[in-house]
Design goal:
alpha/beta; 254 residues; two-stranded parallel sheet; 9 strands; Rossmann fold; single chain
């Protein structure tokens, strides 16, 4: 019998926010294909956790900044959909994979700029383009932005600019894909304690105190604060949420 379960792709799903997104999606009864860049073992551990909960899961290697690899990645997605899930389409795409990058404008190198551009914007744009023919009508796209598009923190100009571009792109996705019933939304996490950017926030007590002081709920975020919102956006309950930027920051600078 054909498997009617919905399937989500989560990029950067081996750890941090992506891992929590993958686990929360599985809790909603959605099967998951997650990607990882270098953390194969961590990715397989997430797959095992999802499978233990009774859902199907798989992990594929992908560097979202290497746009030329997307054709072969698309082929691998098609193979794994047929072999492991018994279908030929996905329902949801969560563009989560990313890296940190911090430098004052005066010190941003072209190499750093290009790496952030490729991973956070160009990669998101063209991976989404490649996945569109594989997406079922009525599905959804969730792009991950940042609180830094609303709150300007010195040192994050390049990173935040790419995220701002993703927010504009999301509006266009919502507009152009509406005819297919595909929704597109952005989530914008505030400061979160993960190993993102080499544990940039987690390892800095002074920064953690600053974040706590400017956040209405009085603490930095944790990964578990974020994934459930992504999972919600991939359910029928969120069917009328479209083209939105949803900030998940505990109320930073409000």
């Amino acid at each position: 019998m054909e498997n009617k379960n919905k399937i989500a792709i989560v990029t950067g799903g081996s750890r941090g926010l992506g891992k929590d997104m993958a686990l929360r999606l599985a809790e909603k009864g959605i099967d998951v294909i997650l990607t990882y860049n270098t953390k194969a073992e961590e990715a397989e551990n997430v797959v095992k956790q999802i499978e233990q909960s009774g859902r199907k899961a798989a992990a594929l290697q992908l560097n979202t900044g290497n746009i030329k690899s997307f054709d072969s990645f698309t082929g691998k997605i098609q193979e794994i959909l047929a072999d492991k899930f018994g279908v030929d389409h996905i329902d949801f795409l969560i563009n989560n994979a990313g890296i940190g990058g911090y430098a004052p404008i005066a010190d941003v190198s072209e190499d750093m700029f290009d790496e952030l551009l490729n991973i956070h914007f160009k990669g998101v744009y063209f991976l989404t383009q490649k996945m569109l023919p594989l997406m079922n009508n009525g599905g959804g796209i969730v792009n991950v932005s940042s609180g830094l598009t609303r709150i300007s923190v010195p040192g994050s100009s390049a990173y935040a600019s790419m995220k701002g571009a993703v927010e504009v792109f999301t509006h266009y996705l919502a507009k152009e894909l509406g005819v297919r019933g595909i929704r597109a939304n952005t989530i914008a996490p505030g400061a979160v304690l993960t190993d993102f950017g080499g544990g940039h926030l987690r390892n800095d007590e002074q920064l953690k105190q600053f974040i706590s002081n400017i956040t209405a709920l009085g603490r930095p975020g944790v990964a578990e604060d974020i994934g459930g919102v992504v999972a919600f956006l991939c359910t029928e309950e969120a069917r009328w949420v479209n083209g939105q930027r949803i900030e998940i920051s505990g109320g930073m600078f409000i």
